Each structure stands twice: as structure tokens, then as C-alpha cells.
């Protein structure tokens, strides 16, 4: 009797990426789940979130290899500082009745 042949399943690792407001656990965007075969490399980058900028502190586990343990990677963001637009004030130089500048 022949042994039944079972398909060999690929072993997948999982990395979940979270996007938080710096200093909190307030999510600014939905988490993203990445999967890959064990021992396959991953290298994660922050995403653009309108109104916020990444605080440029790379997570220590933002790159590595997929493995048997699920990994949580967190990127932290700060609000983008939007300065009000400057208005330009023009002041006319005084003139005499003839339109000439005084001497």
C-alpha cells in the first residue's frame, strides 16, 4: 500500500505594521499585514499619512526575515506643522503734490 501524498504547505510568517500618533497607541491608519515564506526578507517603510509626518525613528524590527513568530512593527508620527500664509504689506513712500519724493 502506498502512503498518501499530502501537499507540502509553505510555511508563512506574518508581520503586522501599525501607524500611531507619537507617544500614544492612537492609530492614524489601519494596520497592514504582510506575509512571506519563512526566511524571506522583509524591509518595511513608513507610509504617507495626510496631516502627519513620520518621526524618523526607525523601529528596530522594521526589517528582518519572516519566521514562525508573528512580528508587530510600529511607526510613530507627529502632526505636520502648517504655518499660516504670510501676507505682504506694501507701504507707499510719501510724495509731494507733483508726484516727486521729498528731498
From TrEMBL:
Domain MucBP stretches: 14-77
Entry annotated with the keyword Repeat: yes
Superkingdom in the source lineage: Bacteria
InterPro entries found in the cross-reference section: MucBP_dom
Keywords: Repeat
Repeat is among the record's keywords: yes
Protein name (Swiss-Prot/TrEMBL): MucBP domain-containing protein
Species of origin: Lactiplantibacillus dongliensis
Amino acid at each position: 500500500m502506498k502512503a498518501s501524498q499530502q501537499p507540502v504547505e509553505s510555511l508563512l510568517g506574518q508581520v503586522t505594521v501599525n501607524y500611531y500618533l507619537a507617544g500614544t497607541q492612537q492609530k492614524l491608519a489601519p494596520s497592514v499585514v504582510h506575509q512571506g515564506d519563512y526566511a524571506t526578507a522583509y524591509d518595511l517603510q513608513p507610509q504617507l499619512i495626510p496631516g502627519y509626518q513620520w518621526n524618523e525613528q526607525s523601529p528596530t524590527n522594521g526589517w528582518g526575515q519572516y519566521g514562525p513568530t508573528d512580528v508587530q512593527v510600529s511607526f510613530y508620527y507627529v502632526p505636520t506643522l502648517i504655518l499660516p500664509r504670510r501676507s505682504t504689506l506694501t507701504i507707499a513712500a510719501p510724495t509731494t503734490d507733483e508726484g516727486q519724493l521729498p528731498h
